[in-house]
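Section 3.1: Structural characterization of target chains.
Under the original work plan, the team committed to producing a structural model for every single-chain target entering the pipeline before any wet-lab resources were allocated. The record below documents one such target. The sequence was received from the expression subgroup and is listed exactly as submitted; it comprises 238 residues.
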Amino acid sequence: MDREEWLALTSVMPDYLPAVRGFFDRQYAAHDRYWWRGSNRYSTQPSDHTAFNAAWLAAAARRGPGRALDLGAGEGADAIRLARLGYQVDAIDASAVACEKAERFARAERVDVTVRWEPIETTSLTGTYDIVLMNGCLHYIRDKHSVLTRVAAASAADAVHAVALFSTVTPVPTEHAAVPVFPDEEGGTVERFYVGWRTLLRARERDRAEHSHPGFAPHVHSHIKLVAARKPEGTPAG
C-alpha cells in the first residue's frame, strides 16, 4: 500500500490510529526483535509454547493447510509459523516498520507470507480464511464488535479464531497508556461474540508479569485469551 492509499483509508479511521501506529513504529525501529526473542519463535511444536499459542498451533496443524489471517502481525512470528505449517498467510499491521521486518524475517526463513500495511479496521478481507489470529491487537481497537463481525464474515464455516487482549482487571500500565488502549471486560464483547463456537481454550489471566518485550519498566497485565472453532450450520449443540 502506498502513502496515498494509506491516507485514504486513515481518513475514515478513529483519531487514535496515528498515535498507535507511531508508537509501534518507534518500538519496532528501536529493537532488532521487539517480540519473540527466544529460540522458539518459529517453532511449530505446541510443546515449545505457552498454552494459548500451543492451542492455536495444534488446531492449525490438525486442520491442515489452508488460508490464514494474522491481524496485528507485528514482526511476523505467528505468520511465519503458519506458513511453515503450509498455510497461505495474509499478515496485516498498521506499522510500516513492523511490515518491513515481517517481510524480511519471512524471507530469511524462506517462507511466503503476504504482508500488508493496512489499518485493521478497514483492511480488505477477500476470500475465506480457515485460521484467524488476533494476538494482542484488539486492545488497540475501540469498536471490537465491528472488527470481529467483519472477520467472521470472511471466515470458513469451521474456522478457528485465536484472540488475546488486555482485560480491564488490571489498570493499563503507565508505559502502555502512552497511546490509547481499550481493554475488554471479562465476559465482555470478545467473549460474548464467541458464544456458540466450540471453545478450544479459554483463559482469564490476571496480574501476570510482562516479559515479552524490551524497553519498559517491570509491569503486569491481565489478559483474556480464547481459541475457538466455529460450528458449521447444523452441528448439534454441545
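The chain is about 30% helix and 25% strand.
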